[in-house]
């Protein structure tokens, strides 16, 4: 499924602070912790808990969030389908990064081990 320009624009303009509580609810409902959530987000973006809280306070958009992020060099290893889109086929870089984030949070909620989620080379 290809993303549309409208879809990409909607992702870019979404506010991170409004989505973050949904991430917390999703993982806690499945028995995972907020600390684990911060761990996978830091692995993907380079943002520690303090920096994430600053971005939440600042009410940044996903566009700003990912412009400031230092994406992990292994992020390209995140593959699969999330929200109906095959990550490998997304051609808009910002939308792809947002789906990387969705995917690692989904994996955390599904009980996947942190070592597997963070895709460190062996």
TrEMBL record:
This is DUF2200 domain-containing protein. InterPro entries: SP1917_dom_sf, UCP033199. It comes from the Bacteria. It comes from Seonamhaeicola marinus.
């Amino acid at each position: 499924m290809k993303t549309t320009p409208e879809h990409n624009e909607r992702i870019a303009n979404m506010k991170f602070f409004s989505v973050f509580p949904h991430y917390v609810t999703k993982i806690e409902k499945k028995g995972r912790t907020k600390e684990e959530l911060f761990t996978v987000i830091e692995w993907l973006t380079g943002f520690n808990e303090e920096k994430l809280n600053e971005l939440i306070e600042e009410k940044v958009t996903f566009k700003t969030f990912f412009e400031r992020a230092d994406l992990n060099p292994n992020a390209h290893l995140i593959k699969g389908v999330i929200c109906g889109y095959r990550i490998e086929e997304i051609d808009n870089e910002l939308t792809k990064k947002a789906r990387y984030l969705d995917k690692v949070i989904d994996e955390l909620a599904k009980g996947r081990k942190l070592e597997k989620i963070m895709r460190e080379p062996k």
